[in-house]
Amino acid sequence: MGTDDKQRRLINSHENSRGFYLQKFRLYETRSNFYMVGWDKTRTFWKVLKIDRLEPSELIIHEDPTSYSEIECLDLLKRIHEGNTSTGGLKFVSRCYGIIGFIKFLGPYYFLVITERRKIGKICGHAVYAITKSEMFPIPHSTVLSNMAYSKDENRYQKLLHMVDLTKDFFFSYSYPIMISFQKNLSNSETGLTLYETMFVWNEFLTRGIHNQLQNTLWTVALVYGFFKQVTLTISAQDFILTLIARRSRHYAGTRYLKRGVNEKGHVANDVETEQIVFENVREGSPVGVSAVVQNRGSIPLFWSQETSRLNLKPDIILSRKDLKFEATKLHFEDLVQRYGNPVIILNLIKTREKRPRETILRAEFANAIDFINKDLPEDNQLRFLHWDLNKHPRIKATKALIRLGEVAVNALELTGLFHCQLIPTSRSGELLKLSSIGCDSSGDHVEKDLYEMDVEVDNGSDDLRGAYYVKLSTVQKGVLRTNCIDCLDRTNVGQYAYGLVALTHQLHALGFIDVENIDSHSPIAHDLMRIYEEMGDTLALQYGGSAAHNKIFSEIRGQWKATTRSQEFFRSLQRYYSNAYMDPEKQDAINVFLGHFQPQEGKPSLWELNPEQHYDVRMHGSTLTAESSRSFIKRSLSEGNISCGSSSHGKDTDIDQTEDAHQPLTVCGKGGCKGISESTPEISTCDTDISFTRYTPSMYGGQFFHDMQLEQCLGSGSVKFHECALIPYPKNKEVQFSCWLDNLATSAINDRVVQKQNSAFGPVHF
């Protein structure tokens, strides 16, 4: 008995001082209840959850407040079995790795659980997993189900939910808040339920019921949807670990033509946060350097749409309502400032001219919106805005395009900075060390060499122990680069790669891997990074656009045969067209069901009876909901997806835990209108026009903020002309001296000299 008391004291002390995470579960059933038993990695904490099976249409969950030892838990299960022998006893159902959530259509409640998982990486020793298999179980016992009224629509709603392929692009961690960035993890005081309310947790609706009843997150996992890739790379004979994470927002999420622009709350379609983290690959117990940088993509924050058409590959762009004060646009940028701080830097890659205005309509209105918003902002907080038409010149070389984008990246990084710290092991290896706040002084400047404390898990081989680290902070990121084109897929991904490459040079330099901030665009490390960004771009494009991304620039850099590239681009255009025209409405319905934007009710119209293009509002229970939906966490085929419909029958007691090898506020620019390629079609010949850029002069103070670009309206012509200027820093309270030079990219000699001069002005970053 003394031993049991000692173990119980150990459990309570451990639980109270450090908290714990349930990572493995077993599901049992009796006629009246489901019982889920969960335990932590050390098999020290054992908890029991009970779900009522006699209530036909309500969700009733009870958590035993006691933390058991393993022996005590086995004894409890034995007593439950003995108490239910008259109705069949306690039966094993399945091994699980977490609850995804609960959902109800027109009949009973169902609950979704992870039954197989695979490890895809680690962050500070915290394992990150993907789902290999999941199952969905009806909660009421079969005797209760037989007495419930049957609706013919029930199966159809189930099939919609089954279209969601949880094995594609979803990931989670038990102990690391993967839904927020590394920098925010150090400074964020939010935990538990609050984290589930963030914009990147896709099963927030599914877990709302259990969280409201239990007021904890022990039993659920927070699913992030997007992209996760971790690799070990080598530079200068030294290994480092690179992690690229894309987090897709659940707000205003959906398919390409059914979700465009912004909604009334300021949420934009295809809103994705991309984080690039670099770790030193060091021995356990050694100090480890970490650097991270975040960028963002999202639809142009205006009220606009395109009608899905089976006859037109490029539907007209329609400004669907006039927001004279740009309230929704303002809300969007206020949210970005809240998330990332100032400055917000906008890189707009849409076209400058078209024979038939499409993109240029948005270009002009976007410029007007930024100009309007900036009028009410202090100079330091104004939005930094740059137009640059990536499709403007068909003869531009891919490397020169990356040079231009790299110049933007260099300036953006000077303005925002990046996160850099060193994790230093402490001797206090059993304690929880809290990091109260990240260091920015009242002026918002970066804090140098402040010492903070945090708790992280040590990657110690067994992955079962944790150690405490001091966090020696060098710099933090304050502000963000936001990139967009029309779909925020193809051109945007090129822009994000260019930024990622420049950021990597700064990260590796900060960590001491390279002496100068210079990585050649043709070096192996640059090609490795390009492949990862290309993979991310394909994944995000499949989710939102229905096909892999158009990667013409990447293909050219790799030296791929042009005929092969054209064929590939044409095929992807057709694939995207077919998906958008024929499959998107059903995908959108599935998204609405999964995210809870539509909740069925008997006597109300079914989801498929509504207009499929009602992409701003979905009616539910007689009220109006925002039909936020997101592209393709949907299974990319016509099959029913990977969620198995489980009965309450016995499952295999197998521990399938696969591991994947980790080594594998700126003023307006201008307006305009030259026909270039669409993101949906292969590149075709376009007119060759000039762009004017601003030259950087050595007398200008480096890295303060971007120059305001002039908006020029051509009266009487009915067209809008943009002057595009290079991104330049200039000193506050001084007259800006600059000159614009005509950049005819067809004139290679002049172009080469100017590019060479600009490279030297912006620092030794080569592409």
TrEMBL record:
Q: Does the keyword Hydrolase apply?
A: yes
Protein localization: Vacuole membrane
Q: Subunit structure, per the record?
A: Component of the PI(3,5)P2 regulatory complex at least composed of ATG18, SAC/FIG4, FAB1 and VAC14.
Matches recorded under InterPro entries = Fig4-like, SAC_dom
Pfam family membership, one: Syja_N
- Origin, by domain of life? Eukaryota
Q: Which residues form the SAC domain?
A: 161-546
Q: Does the keyword Hydrolase apply?
A: yes
Output the Gene Ontology cellular-component terms.
Answer: vacuolar membrane
An example Gene Ontology biological process: phosphatidylinositol dephosphorylation
Q: What is this protein called?
A: Phosphoinositide phosphatase SAC2
Topology of this chain in the membrane: Peripheral membrane protein
Question: What is the organism field in this record?
Answer: Nicotiana tabacum
| Catalytically driven reaction(s) | a 1,2-diacyl-sn-glycero-3-phospho-(1D-myo-inositol-3,5-bisphosphate) + H2O = a 1,2-diacyl-sn-glycero-3-phospho-(1D-myo-inositol-3-phosphate) + phosphate
Q: Which UniProt keywords apply?
A: Hydrolase, Membrane, Vacuole
- GO molecular-function annotation terms? phosphatidylinositol-3,5-bisphosphate 5-phosphatase activity
